[in-house]
Protein 1
Amino acid sequence: MDRHRSRYTCFVFGVVAILGGTPLARAQSYTVTTIAGGGTSTGHSGPALSASLAGNDSGLALDASGNLYIADSGANVIRKVTPAGTISVFAGDIAAGQGGYYGDGGPATSAGLNGPAALAVDAAGNLYIADTGNNRVRKVSTTGVISTVAGGGSSTVLGGQATQTFILEGNGLAVDSAGNIYLSQVVGSGASGQVLKVAQGGVITAFAGDTSAVFSPTKLGDGGAATSAFIAQTGLAVDSSGNLYIADAGDNRIRKVSNGIITTVAGSNSSNYSGDGGLAISAGLNTPSSVAVDAGGNIYIADSGDYRIRKVTPDGNITTIAGNGTPDNSGDGGPATSASLNRLNAIAVGPGGEIYFTDVRVSDGAGLVRVLTPAGSAPAITAGGIVALDSTSNTVQPGEWASIFGSNLANTTASWKGDFPISLGGTSVTIDNQSAYLYYVSPTQINFQVPDDNKTGTVSLVVTTSFGSVTGTVTLGEFSPSFSLLDATHVAGIILRSDGSGAYGGGTYDIIGPTGTSLGYKTVAAKAGDAIALFGVGFGPTSPVVAPGQAYSGAAQTTNPVQLFINNNPVTPGFAGITSAGLYQFNIVTLPSGLGTGDVPLQAAVGGFRTPSNVVISLH
């Protein structure tokens, strides 16, 4: 009965366009403040603004809790700044007074570091350090124990264990969601730099850059294998899809490696500041030293030679979000584009959309860390804007997908894969004081999964961002059935094609709809004898129980029978249940004849409740 279940459920998450549509992101402005450095304290403990940083800080990273890590290269330590603004030494033997290599297997605060530079934090909260003076990559576990994960060997041949390989560690480090480590290697003598990859098993291989390549502005290697390209890299970053971004400072570009192919996503042959408001690949960058990517796919560039921070949106356009082009440190508390920035060595994105960067005070060379905070207003929910997914119903059930519509609901646009977080893009939602699970956030829309709750009736819903919170109400019920939709009325469903003739899924299915492209893509009306699957939410308990917030792929049948009505004719599905987190699927193995033609009414009933009456299915 469930032979066509899970492999088609991705259809709904794709064709329905992130569970109900992807709103356009608003233009974002920022204010700038200094949050660390510039003081006289050695920074063992105390207020971050009272701490002294060496002035050559070249690495920043943030964890999911908003803790900031600073590579204080001159002091050979890593410092940690909590969200409350307290600084401490997180790694490195500050008492030693000089660099060294020792301490593996023990507390990170007793270990020797030598010129630590780039930093990265993995999904589990482990911190990675580009220990450049020791030509190694070090790891500090969540329990505070330090180890070496790359470098320190004598072999220069790649393909073996990273800890048995000799590397010339440069100022670039990133970790993807799978735990793969990317590090930059500087060869020198005019040859291309290189990005190396350390897989989870510890094997180190070349990932980008051909060390035999010689610079030529017309032979950078774009469009070809990344391992054949010329790069002069500094900073590295990875996005949520595992694409690697390279701050190619020597070529005045930001490069991207996707599926082994390298391209330029920002910068050109010009090093003159130019291009704002247009395509990033036509813009001028000047020695971009660092790059970061947020959950929405926005790219942030430390355009060091222009004393500015640039932003590239997912549509490929570039703007300046901080810096007026004058090397100074003025402007704190005001608009970031009116502020002066001096020396941009590192840049990182915070969990709430904040942009952190290192700077150096002009007057005395003191190290600073400054932050761009998105300027915005408190969130607001539109009237009637809390509804079950693809529905106007204000009643939802635990585990159901629902949407919130309004303004200022998030500082960025972001979506999630895997188990769903309770905070995304700096936004969180609670229902009846319990955290909801977030799949998608944007300034105007949130899609979330309702948490478990034994209550029924009206309860409070609260949306919280860095600019405030807003409260609304929603009704909890055991059932809140509705169909997923392609538009305002057409049900989301597919026709299974065992002969491979379908337009989607490698020929395995067609999308049900009016025959043609009237919905903006190819759809086909279903006919008698077709095997079809329809999708919806809110159809009640299942066996086995599927807990909210967790990624799921399987077949959990509804405990209450579901009856479909097509053009008022009862049709019993062969399977009705959850096949993906919060998503119900209804399989009709053979569509009966005599149901009519054209767009005919479709409803479903479960537990004494019916789906909204405005839904149709296209029949031929």
Protein 2
Amino acid sequence: MAAPVEFGMRGYSPGLGLGDFDGDGVLDVAIGGYYEDAIIVFLNVGNAHLHQEAILAAGSGPTDLTISDFDGDGKPDIAGTNRNGNTVSVFRNRSSIGSLGFGTKIDIEAALTPYGLSSSDFDGDGKPDLVVQTTGADHSRYSETCPPILLLPSPRNWTSCSMRVPRGESPLET
């Protein structure tokens, strides 16, 4: 068994996502750098060798990540929660083989203290949606009957939080 390979990250790095960001057929790694307020992308150059290639300025305290093709161009994009900034940041992949690049960050309001994140086609329209888990403690913005889960459908035109999932109801019925 090969020895573990360590990478220098300062402190707490809870988010991790895998995707072929540069289109070379090999999975690359994205990590949420909580104290760096950034998402750090490492390109896999083969033989378990990763090189830090990009630092994406996220919001305050990035925690969880998810990777999906949010804009429908066939490339894996990155979304991450910003625990201290109460937002989700989406970075559209603009890379090509041999050249890593991401578009301007899109920040989406996501209630108080978002920390969990997942993507899938929850509403059946063929486009990936985001589900964000929050502490749900900001009662000035959301009712007490709203659980700490937000569904953000089809992010191609995201500008702000667009749906809350009420307790006991399916997101498809909302």
